Amino acid sequence: MILSTLTTLEAWLARLEQLHPSAIDLGLERVRHVKDALGLSPSFPVITVGGTNGKGSTCAYLEAILTAAGYRTGLYTSPHLLRYNERVRVAGAEASDGELVASFEKVEAARGEVSLTYFEFGTLGAMLQFIAAEVDVAILEVGLGGRLDAVNVFEPDAAIVTGVDLDHMDYLGDSREQIGFEKAGIYRADRPAICADPQPPASLLEHAGRIGANLYRIDEAFHASWKNGSWGYRGQRWNFADLPLPAMPGTYQLRNAAAALAALEALQDRLPVSEAAIRQGLLAARVPGRFQRIGADPQTLLDVAHNPQAARALAAALKENPVAGRTLAVVGMLADKDAQGVVDALAASIDAWWVCSPDSPRALAADELADTVRRHAHDAPVMVRPGPLEAYRAAQSEARDGDRILVFGSFYTVASVLAVCNA
After folding, report:
1. Has this prediction a pTM greater than 0.85?
2. 197 three-class SS
3. How far apart are CA 154 and CA 184, in angstroms?
4. What span, in angstroms and rounded, lies between the C-alpha atoms of 7 and 105?
5. Per-residue pLDDT at 168
6. Which terminus of the chain, N or C, has less C-beta within 10 A?
7. Topology of the domain covering 292-422
8. Quick count: other Cβ atoms within 10 Å of Cβ 241?
9. Residue 257: HSE in the Cβ half-sphere, 13 Å Cα cutoff
10. How many helices (H) and strands (E) does the chain have?
11. What is the pLDDT of residues 92-147, one digit of tens each?
C-alpha cells in the first residue's frame, strides 16, 4: 500500500490491522525501539491504570477530578465503542481524525522495519499527541495485562491495579497468581503503587515488595466507606466524609473512585487537587457502556461486562437498582471468555434471555452460548437471534412497562446496540 494514499483515519486503521502478523504480541522491545526513535520522553506526570475490571471507570475519575482542578489532561483508553477517536482525549475532547492521522504518519516514519501491532501503534500515537498538546498529566489505560503491555514503556509516576481476576488467560496465565504478577508489572520502585483489590494475589504483593514500590492497599493504606447515600474516603493525608456517590452506579464503583483518590493523594505535591474538585469530578465522570441507562419504559441498560468478576459486579448493581417488572437480557460474547462463569453470576437476575453472536471473528456462536445459558439460567426462556440488533429488537417487542432490557457480554455487543440508540 502506498502510504501517500492513507489520507483518512479509516484507511490508516485498516492498514494498522494488517501491519503485524498477530493482533496481540506482548513484549516491549519493538515498541520501545520506536518510542526511542520518536524521542518520546514526557516531562509531565503519567498515571498508568491496569486491572481486570474497572480500568475505564478509574481513568474517568482521574480525568474528571484533574480537569475540575484546572489541569489539561491527556487520556488514552481502549477499546473504543463507536469511534477510534474515543481512545485519545485531550482536555476532555476526543482527538480529531486529522490529529490521529498526523500522529500515525509520525509513528510510521519512525518505525522503519519494526513491525507494530494496532495497539502499539496507537499507544505511541497517543503519547505524541499528548506531548504536542502540552498536557499537564497523562492517564494511560493498560490494554492487556501490564508487564508487557505497550503503555508500560512509559514510566508512570503512579500506577493503579484496580483488581485481579481470570480473563485473557491465553496470554496472562490461568490463575490469579500468574495474572497478578503480570498486572503488577506496571509498578515501579519508589513510586506509588495503588492496589484496589481487597484480596490481592501474593504474587502482586511480592513483586511490589521485591522492586521497592510504595504500595498502597485498599482497606489498609486507604479506605472507602458507604453511608446513607454518600461515602467517605480516608487515606494517608486525606479524610473526606459525605462525598457524593459517583455518577456511575454500583457500590463497586467506590473501589474504583477510591483507587483514583489514592493515586491523586500520593501525587498531591506534584498535582494538588482540592476537595471541591474531587466532589465535582465524582459527579462528572462517565464511561459509555458501564451500567449506562438509555430511555425508560422499558429502560435499556448497557454494560460491557464480559468476565465473571464484572458479571458479579453487574448482578450487584442490578440488585441495588430494582425495577417493577422483568429484566430481559441481550447477550453476545467472545469465544475466549468464560461464558459459564458470566451466566452463573447473572442467572438469578435475569428473567428471559435473547442470545446472539457479536460482530467479531472471535465471537462465540449464538447456539453454543444458548446451550450454556439453558444449562445454567434457572429455566428462564432462551431465544436465539443472529446478531445483537436482532436480539435487541426481539427483546423490545416483548418488553412491557416496568421492564428493563440489559445488553451485555462484549464491547461488540454493546456497541451495536449503542449505535442504534444514539442514532
Report:
1. yes
2. coil
3. 15
4. 10
5. 67
6. C
7. Protein-Tyrosine Phosphatase; Chain A (3.90.190)
8. 11
9. 32
10. 15, 17
11. 999 999 999 999 999 999 999 999 999 999 999 999 999 999 999 999 999 988 99
Sign, CA torsion 198/161/239/319: negative
Q: Which three cell numbers stand for residue 38?
A: 520518536
Distance (Å, whole) CA 160 – CA 189: 14
pLDDT in tens, 5-18: 678 999 999 999 88
The angle formed by the CA atoms of residues 413, 414 and 415, to the nearest 5 degrees, is 95
Q: Specify whether the CB–CB gap between 304 and 290 falls below 8 A.
A: yes
Between CA 315 and CA 100 the distance in angstroms is 38
407 DSSP β-pair partners: 302, 330
Handedness of CA 407, 408, 412, 413 (dihedral sign): negative
C-alpha cell at 393: 429488537
Model pLDDT for residues 277-336, shown as the tens digit of each residue: 999 999 999 999 999 999 877 899 999 999 999 999 999 999 999 999 999 999 999 998
What is the distance between the alpha carbons of residues 369 and 163, in angstroms, rounded to a whole number? 27
Identify which of 194, 223, 17 has the alpha carbon closest to the alpha carbon of residue 120: 17
pLDDT tens digits, 214-254? 999 999 999 999 888 899 999 999 999 999 999 998 888 99
pLDDT digits (tens, 9 = 90+) for 135-144: 999 999 999 8
Q: Is pLDDT of 85 > 50?
A: yes
> What does the pLDDT read at residue 1?
44
3-284, which class in CATH? alpha beta
Neighbouring CB atoms inside 10 A of 76's CB total: 25
419 vs 388: CA distance, rounded Å: 11
**Cell digits for 160?**
493503579
Q: Give CA–CA dist 96/405, Å, rounded.
A: 33
- Provide the strand spans (E) within 59-210: 73-76, 88-90, 93-94, 137-141, 158-161, 192-195
Q: Per-residue pLDDT averaged across 43-71, rounded?
A: 97
Residue that the C-alpha cell 497468581 belongs to: 177
Q: What are the domain boundaries of the chain?
A: 3-284, 292-422
What's the CA gap between 237 and 27, in Å, rounded?
A: 37
Q: Angle CA(6)–CA(133)–CA(268) in degrees, nearest 5?
A: 140
- Return the residue matching grid coordinates 451466566: 343
